[in-house]
């Protein structure tokens, strides 16, 4: 499955890997950016800690509850540290999710979590963009 087809999915399961090699799957929103997939998450989450330690990742289309609906695609995942790239990632997410994204922003701001956010970028290794 290509990056574009995965980016068109409403939800994608992101699998990151623990030290023992076992995977942890999380349903996330993704948007396309320059041939990769971008997403946001709480910077204090274990997902981010796993990605910082081991960049291996897999993604597959899924439903809102994480039920896999397509094939897995291997890739690498990293934390976006460049503020300009982070801004472009948020622009891509706003373009795709619109009011849903703004509602999430509002509640993240309301509960003081918006400042903990980070953007993750997934580059697929066997997709064709």
Task: Write up what this structure looks like.
It is a single chain. The chain has 129 residues and is an alpha+beta fold. It has one domain (3-124): Electron Transport, Fmn-binding Protein, Chain A (Pnp Oxidase, Chain A, Roll), CATH 2.30.110. The protein is 33% helix and 33% strand. The chain is built from three helices and seven strands. Strands 2-1-5-6-7-4-3 form a seven-stranded antiparallel beta sheet, sandwiched between helices. A hairpin with a 2-residue loop joins strand 3 and strand 4. The longest helix has 28 residues, at 83-110. The protein is globular.
CATH topology label: Pnp Oxidase, Chain A
- The chain-level mean pLDDT equals 90
Strand % is 25-35%
User: Which of globular, elongated, flat, extended, rod-shaped describes the shape?
Assistant: globular
How are helices and strands ordered from N to C? HEEEEHEEHE
What is the makeup of the main sheet?
7 strands, antiparallel
Uncertain runs are: none
Largest beta sheet: what is the strand line-up? 2-1-5-6-7-4-3
Distance between the termini: 9 Å
CATH architectural grouping: Roll
Helix content percent band: 25-40%
Helix and strand content put the structural class at alpha+beta
Q: What is the CATH C-level name? A: Mainly Beta
- Give the name of the CATH superfamily: Electron Transport, Fmn-binding Protein, Chain A
Global Rg: 14 Å
Please report the number of helical segments: 3
Q: Count all strands and give the number.
A: 7
Total domains = 1
């Amino acid at each position: 499955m290509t990056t574009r087809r995965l980016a068109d999915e409403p939800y994608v399961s992101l699998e990151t890997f623990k030290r023992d090699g076992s995977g942890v799957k999380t349903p996330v929103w993704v948007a396309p950016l320059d041939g990769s997939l971008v997403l946001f998450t709480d910077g204090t989450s274990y997902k981010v800690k796993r990605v910082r330690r081991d960049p291996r990742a897999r993604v597959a289309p899924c439903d809102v509850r994480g039920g896999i609906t397509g094939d897995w695609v291997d890739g690498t995942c990293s934390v976006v540290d460049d503020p300009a790239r982070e801004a472009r990632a948020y622009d891509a997410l706003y373009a795709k999710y619109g009011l849903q994204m703004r509602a999430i922003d509002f509640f993240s701001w309301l509960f003081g979590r918006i400042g903990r956010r980070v953007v993750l970028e997934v580059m697929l290794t066997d997709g064709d963009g």
